[in-house]
């Protein structure tokens, strides 16, 4: 059975969207990985941001570089910020686990979102990534450094994170047609994030 906190992650972000906006760093500590992702996407393209939140700073960075953006998030309150800030882009209210947009994208990113899912739901997401990609599509996501569950806290509520083992991520990527371009566990140049960059074959 999933951890109770995993089942309530969308509600947590719905309740605390204002706090997220206030606290989320806009320093773009992710920039080196975002640039590597865009290099894999190509000079132009349509990016799917899975768990886009408010659209800042990551989706905003992609838009500033000239890319078309579709953002998906399960929190209506978070998406309201994105819609207000970037009304010309497409924002979809949907749980990523049920995502079925019936189109493919040149790049898919799940930064600090996918790792809130249970381990079972994470395994199922690789088929979702595959359905929304085509040969040449890039995929960027963050995970934990090893198999397990890690509990944090946000605004006084438990904040769930989970990860598979790196070997299992590699196997799931390969099974779904992705080749790993780069992976770094607990990257010291990216505030300790564990980051994966892959490309669809």
UniProtKB/TrEMBL annotation:
UniProt GO MF annotations: methyltransferase activity
Record GO biological process: methylation
Ranges where the Methyltransferase domain occurs: 47-136
Alphabetically ordered keywords of this record: Methyltransferase, Transferase
Keyword Methyltransferase: yes
Pfam families: Methyltransf_25 (PF13649)
Protein name: SAM-dependent methyltransferase
The species this protein was found in: Kluyvera genomosp. 2
